[in-house]
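Box 3.1. Reading complex inputs
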Amino acid sequence: MRNRSVTYVPAPVSLAKTTEAAFQALADPTRRAVLDLLRRGSQPAGVIASAFPVSRPAISKHLRLLRRAHLVREHRAGRNRVYELNPEPLRAVDSWIAQYRAFWASNLASLKAFVEAEHARETAQSESKSRRKNL
Amino acid sequence: MTNPVITSLHDTIVSEIDIAAPIERVFRSISDAKEILRRSPHLAAYELEPRVGGKWRLELAMPQLHHGVSTIHHAGEILEFDPPHLLAYTWTANFHKNPAHVSVVRWELTATDAGTHVKVTHSGLAAEPDAAKDYAGGWPGVLADLKKHFEVSG
């Protein structure tokens, strides 16, 4: 019963502003598809717009949200605006989730220690009871 | 498996472990409030109504402020209750930026030769409530792929 003490690891943490913007940006299927497209390399706004069956203003809005979340960078090449993927904010998304990974790892390890110790104790008790009965 | 195995996919964390005790015994220790208080003696409160639609809550006093709160509250509603195999409940936290944000914890227990296999799935961790409806079309692949992408290229 050495493992009886259980550490509760307070898991989750409020999201920092930028992380929150990243979550919000990732919540939309079109924006995720834009990011997928940019994984193959930087693209001018026109190419991005023509890849999706939505209006130009709608694509502009998606790109603006992605830019605000720092998931894409914009620069000008001649008359074109070119968009490039910036995956850095995803590190924050992943590290937020990592805290819950740690929480569940600790929680399950302590559950195992507790239940196995309790079960062993209960089994020993009922065995000694039945031995007494048989005597 | 001796140690917990934790995998996470997008905003879902799947944790698994094998326990050398009968399935009924394991289920009791995750669903019986008295057992949970015994297992975690420093919880200030733990309640769980063992039925679908019932409420559960826990309270934990922190030695110092934790993200602005001195007492942690987790709470939710029981979604599935099927002893000794299944327990699922919603999960909120008072110290989240959005305390109303709901994620879901689901315990699945399976009897094995050596005892019990425990699988916990915690889902909906990242989605904002507005994003939840978008879920089905969802995250698949994106986060993992992007992470892979920047780990390779970054």
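In summary: Strands of chain A lie at 43-44, 72-77, 80-85.
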